[in-house]
Write a structure and sequence with these properties.
The complex is a heterotrimer of chains A (about 400), B (about 190) and C (about 525). Chain A is α+β, with helices and mostly antiparallel strands. Chain A has three domains: about 90 residues, no CATH class; about 140 residues, Sandwich (Immunoglobulin-like); about 110 residues, Orthogonal Bundle (Cytochrome Bc1 Complex, Chain D, domain 2). In chain A, the strands form two sheets. Chain A has a five-stranded mixed β-sheet with strand order 3-2-1-5-8. In chain A, strands 4-10-9-6-7 form a five-stranded mixed β-sheet, with helices on one face. Chain B has about 190 residues and is α+β, with helices and mostly antiparallel strands. In chain B, about 25% of the residues lie in helices and about 35% in strands. The longest helix of chain B has about 35 residues. With about 525 residues, chain C is mostly helical. Chain C is globular. The two termini of chain C are about 25 Å apart. The chains are: A alpha+beta (about 400), B alpha+beta (about 190), C mainly alpha (about 525). Chains in contact: A-B, A-C, B-C. The interface between A and B is large, with 39 and 36 residues.
């Protein structure tokens, strides 16, 4: 019965939208978006309804949503039915003579009490779902999520694993210079990885302004508030990749800080975690390594794309942040440049303190890149060990 | 209301009364600030904990129960300090006074003042989490390149609801070097 | 006041204390703001026509969403209702003018300054307000562009204007009624405005307090909304929505009054349940003070708070339902005709009810975790505000314009305007329900490919809706300049004192109070 209801619901929504939008549809040409055919085929288009999601809670919310929706539809059918009946039958042009009645305590009382009763019926399942969502039993995995302008940081508590997750969509796709990929704006360089069938607790906070961490398939949406921690949890039942976005206006790139959750089998998760730790070890070892100029430049370009491009522009020309082409910092003394990158700029809340966010290799690379890109041609380069020395000496 | 009555209410009087309402509601907007704090204290909204040292009363330790207390540390905005808890979690018995430390280091060359803001999750555990000593009660001043182990002592209340078995205590470290002096004064005024 | 007519030239408008002149100025000002806010909306819809960034940069996009909201709420809807109140309330209660005519003049004339100030921020260094019309801290304090100070002053001036307007309306209604016009004999438009005015008096000062705290945080080193100094960004939201939720009803209660005037006229049957309409309006006003945190279900409130605000919010459906049922019953077994005001009023009832349904869905806290801050919310509040506030204002203009200027509007053009607006509105906002449910957050300048089709349709609808309003301007000007002369009654036996005076309404009406049956 419930299933039929669901099918009916999506059918009805579909038909409604088609009727409403038919003329517009004729004009819609997807190719005009500059998206590749394959991407368009695969992107789940014409999404109409809330996702059922992959957790017990998300399914419960979906059912609740459909229940309330259908109650509203039926009330609408009755009310609008009577309304259209009178508009058709009681027209002056068809000779209707107006009645004079204008009140009835019984009727007015009835339509105060009956809706109140319906509301009670709605409140019961809503309350029970809410209580389940607020369950605070012990979790298997605790992950701290920090919202930054404009990226997310994930820290696996007690595991010494922590990383940033940046938008991976290239600027060229955004500005229509390259065809848009399947997961346009919903792809990151490093997704949050969690195991299935484990209770994962998210401790959500923010570094600067309000953000909100939202993954529809997990039915988790919590505001990230600077100075305060919020919690939410999910037990994902199916392995897969689930995408979401920041859901609280946080400034310029609010629309460009997606969330990707990769849920895997427990064994795969353990492997991933071990790999992550190994990676951290390797990185530590690499800190003392020496890189060639080309290696630094190439790596630095990637780091720039992920971390700097939002404010300083694709070609370093500036935007929210100052231009980096031929300006004091990028073409001035190298130590001042390192200082800005490691410690930020005093009194400027917008420029992040990358000393805490990027490792020494990335810092060395990106500084090298900036000093040699876009015609800056300073010719100097930095090694990770230089950053380490700088940090130690300051 | 009868006709007689509204003739008795001159415009001037109506206006005077309405102006009083306007002024009162403007004041009410500001009164929401302490009201909200009071509301937070009572309900643990936003996971706010006590801002002044809790004076412990001799309490029995409930050894039959164990609660996990997790510690997390976050830097706000452009705060360049290293800041982390010494241990990630501790198992405690309700009623037992426990001590742990947070490590902070100022890697810059200048003197800086920091303020740590605590927050407890789940929020409703906040009212059952009593700090007897905390580095968050005062601002922390560190000269360039120095570090410090900052103490925290707390008791988890024996009345903590049964279904809460993990409490997360989060500290966010704010750079208040510029506004710090004002705040220090107002703290001593308290 | 003697029997002299209006002064000549610009001085007439600058120094006027006549409620009809001031009402007209409010209405013209509101329409200008409506067009300006509409242009901002079209910038938004043009950018969202397809995925990718084509026309504007995200920073400017955010300024557009913010200014669209502020201008529509404070510049278009509220002044339009105040304008209608100015024109109609004295005539409806049989008063010669507003109780405080000079204050009436000031409360209008400070508005253009407020909005010039607000609009000028767009040309300032760092751009205009870009933090959404809800201006949540710390985005609007620590991270705000420098123009935020001008924004705060503009809000203060708008608030002062609203407060003065409300005091005037309350004083007029309580003091200036003609003998025999008891409260329970007042037309519902007067009743709903009385209650609205009380709401304004109660919450506009709270908004003023809220922006004053922002100002202090920005310039005087206080920490109301910053955690570093012991404040709390969530407190901002509580203070803001304590103002914001009643504000939502401020924009809809007068619309209820308008529908309650128009539907009986064209159903040729008295309004059903007058008394319950009054009580329902009062209940809605009362409830509006205890539901504010339903805008904040995701901030991490304790469960008791979530439950309280969820139940209280659901409860609003009861008095709102009573109103809808009463309107439907008024039509039932009437003798209906469908002139333009009636078409807008019927569309108001239907579409507002649809917006009410999505409101009921949003009130369910667990489901709100999925709806919150998505286009589903955008669809919801546009369904209550555009057909709710804007359509009712259109309905009111078509209904009373013949009384104001003495000429009938062109029925054919009026109907065309209605159908263009009706189709445009639904094509714009209905698809937003779908993209919202499918997961599109609000206030984003660019979106994933799966949202592309519905967004393209919504954008086309928005341009249709936008251009229909230019057509409306044409109809109104054409009516004012000439046309078939209206009778004094204008409609078929309408109820109300305003229909007992000549068309066009003389410059001074009811200098001697009318006799009330």
């Amino acid at each position: 019965m419930r299933l039929i209801g669901k099918q009916l619901a999506s059918k009805l929504l579909w038909v409604l939208s088609q009727v409403l939008l038919l003329p517009a549809l004729l004009m819609t040409s997807v190719q005009a978006f500059g998206a590749s055919d394959a991407a368009v085929d695969e992107a789940q288009r014409w999404g109409l309804n809330m996702t059922e999601g992959v957790t017990a809670v998300s399914r419960e919310i979906y059912d609740l949503h459909m229940l309330i929706f259908w109650i509203c539809v039926w009330i609408g059918v009755v009310v609008f039915g009577i309304m259209f009946y009178s508009m058709i039958m009681h027209r002056k042009s068809s000779g209707a003579v107006p009645s004079k009645f204008h009140e009835s305590t019984a009727v007015e009382l009835a339509w105060t009490l009956i809706p109140a009763l319906i509301l009670v019926l709605m409140a019961i399942p809503a309350t029970s779902s809410l209580i389940k969502i607020y369950d605070s039993s012990e979790a298997d995995i605790n992950i701290k999520i920090v919202g930054y302008r404009w990226k997310w940081q994930y820290e696996y508590l007690g595991e010494d694993v922590s990383f940033f997750s940046n938008l991976a969509t290239p600027q060229d796709e955004i500005y229509g210079l390259a065809p848009k990929g399947e997961h346009y704006l919903l792809e990151v360089d490093e997704p949050l990885v969690i195991p299935v069938n484990k209770k994962v607790r998210f401790l959500i906070t923010a570094n600067d302004v309000l953000h909100a961490w939202w993954v529809p398939a997990l039915a988790v949406k919590r505001d990230a508030i600077p100075g305060f921690v919020n919690d939410a949890w999910a037990i994902v039942e199916e392995p897969g990749i689930y995408r979401g976005q920041c859901a609280e206006l946080c400034g310029k790139d609010h629309g460009f800080m997606p969330i990707v959750v990769h849920a895997m089998e427990e064994a795969d998760y353990a492997n991933w975690l071990a790999g992550k730790k190994e990676e951290a070890e390797e990185l530590k070892a690499a800190m003392s390594q020496t890189f060639t100029m080309d290696e630094l430049y190439a790596r630095g370009e990637k780091v720039y794309q992920a971390n700097c491009v939002a404010c300083h522009g694709a070609n370093g020309g500036g935007g929210l942040g100052p231009s980096l082409v031929g300006t004091g910092i990028t073409t001035g003394p190298i130590n001042a440049h390192i200082d800005v990158m490691v410690n930020g700029v005093a009194g400027n809340a917008v420029m992040p303190v990358f000393g805490n966010q990027l490792n020494n290799i990335d810092l060395a690379s990106v500084i090298t890149f900036k000093r040699n890109a876009w015609g800056n041609n300073m010719g100097d380069e930095l090694q990770p060990v230089d950053i380490l020395t700088f940090k130690k000496n300051q | 209301m009868t006709e007689q009555l509204n003739k008795n209410l001159p415009v001037r009087k109506i206006v005077a009364r309405l102006v009083v309402v306007v002024v009162a509601m403007f004041g009410f907007g500001f009164a929401l600030v302490p009201l909200y704090d009071l509301f937070c204290d009572v309900t643990g909204l936003n996971g706010k904990t006590n801002t002044e040292a809790f004076v412990p009363v001799a309490e029995l330790i409930d050894t039959s129960r164990e609660v996990t207390v997790q510690f997390i540390a976050t830097n706000n905005e452009s705060m360049p300090w290293e800041f982390r808890p010494e241990v990630f979690n501790i198992k405690v018995h309700p009623g037992q006074e426990v001590e742990t430390t947070f490590y902070a280091r100022n890697p810059t060359s200048g003197e800086m003042i920091a303020q740590a803001i605590p927050s407890v999750s789940p929020g409703r555990a906040a009212t059952y989490f009593h700090k007897t000593e905390c580095f968050c009660f005062n601002q922390q001043l560190l000269s360039g390149g120095t570090d410090v182990d900052m103490p925290l002592r707390f008791i988890v209340d024996r009345d903590l609801p049964d279904d809460v078995n993990t409490i997360t205590l989060s500290y966010t470290l704010f750079d208040v070097t510029e506004t710090g002096a004002i705040q220090v004064d107002s703290l001593t005024a308290l | 006041m003697g029997d002299h007519g209006p002064a000549k030239g610009f001085g007439r408008w600058l120094f006027t204390t006549n409620h009809k002149d001031i009402g007209s100025m409010y209405l013209w000002f509101s329409f200008a703001m409506f067009l300006m806010g509409g242009v901002f909306a079209l910038v938004i819809r043009a950018e969202l026509f397809q995925p990718g960034l084509q026309l504007v940069e995200p920073e400017f996009f955010n300024q557009m969403t913010t200014m669209h909201g502020l201008v529509m709420v404070f510049g278009a809807v509220m002044p339009a209702f105040v304008g209608l109140a100015n024109w109609l309330i004295p005539m409806m209660v049989g008063a010669p003018d507003m109780a405080l005519p000079r204050m009436n003049n000031w409360s209008f004339w400070i508005l253009p300054f407020a909005f010039t100030l607000l609009a000028s921020t767009l040309f300032m260094e760092g751009g205009g307000p870009n933090f959404g019309w809800t201006f949540y801290a710390p985005l609007s304090t620590t991270y705000a562009p420098p123009s935020v100070t001008y924004f705060i002053f503009a809000v203060h001036i708008m608030g002062a204007s609203s407060i003065m307007g409300s005091i005037n309306i309350i004083a007029t209604i309580l003091n200036m009624r003609a003998p025999g016009m008891t409260l329970m004999k007042m037309p519902l438009f007067v009743w709903t405005w009385l209650i609205t005015a009380y709401l304004l008096i109660a919450v506009m000062p709270v908004l003023a307090g809220c922006v004053t705290m922002m100002l202090m945080d920005i310039h005087f080193g206080t920490s109301f909304f910053s955690a570093a100094g012991g404040g709390d960004p969530v407190l901002f939201q509580h203070v803001f929505w304590f103002f914001g939720h009643p504000e939502v009803y401020i924009m809809i209660l007068p619309a209820f009054g308008i529908a309650s005037a128009i539907i009986p006229t064209f159903a040729r049957k008295p309004l059903f349940g007058y008394a319950s309409m009054v009580y329902a309006t009062a209940s809605i006003a009362f409830l509006s003070f205890i539901v504010w945190a339903h805008h904040m279900f995701t901030v991490g409130m304790p469960i008791a708070g979530e439950l309280f605000f969820m139940y209280a919010t659901m409860l609003i459906a009861v008095p709102t339902g009573v109103k809808v049922f009463n309107w439907v019953t008024t039509m039932f077994r009437g003798s209906m005709t469908f002139e333009t005001p009636m078409l807008f009023a019927i569309a108001f009832v239907i579409l507002f009810t649809i917006g009410g349904f999505s409101g009921l869905m949003l009130s369910i806290a667990p489901a709100d975790f999925q709806y919150h801050d998505t286009y589903f919310v955008v669809a919801h509040f546009h369904y209550v505000l555009v057909p709710g506030a804007i359509f009712s204002i259109f309905a009111a203009v078509y209904y009373w314009l013949p009384k104001w200027c003495g000429n009938m509007y062109d029925e054919r053009l009026g109907k065309a305007h209605f159908w263009l607006s009706f189709v445009g509105l639904n094509v714009t906002f209905f698809p937003m329900h779908f993209v919202g449910l499918a997961g599109m957050p609000r206030r984003i300048p660019d979106y994933a490919l799966q949202f592309a089709d519905f967004n393209q349709i919504a954008s086309m609808g928005a341009f249709l809706f936008g251009f229909s309003q230019v057509f409306f301007l044409f109809i109104v000007i054409k009516t004012i300049r000439g046309g078939q002369k209206a009778t004094d009654e204008v409609w078929d036996n309408p109820e109300g004192l305003e229909w007992t005076v000549a068309s066009p309404a003389p410059y001074h009406t009811f200098t001697t109070p009318p006799a009330i049956k």
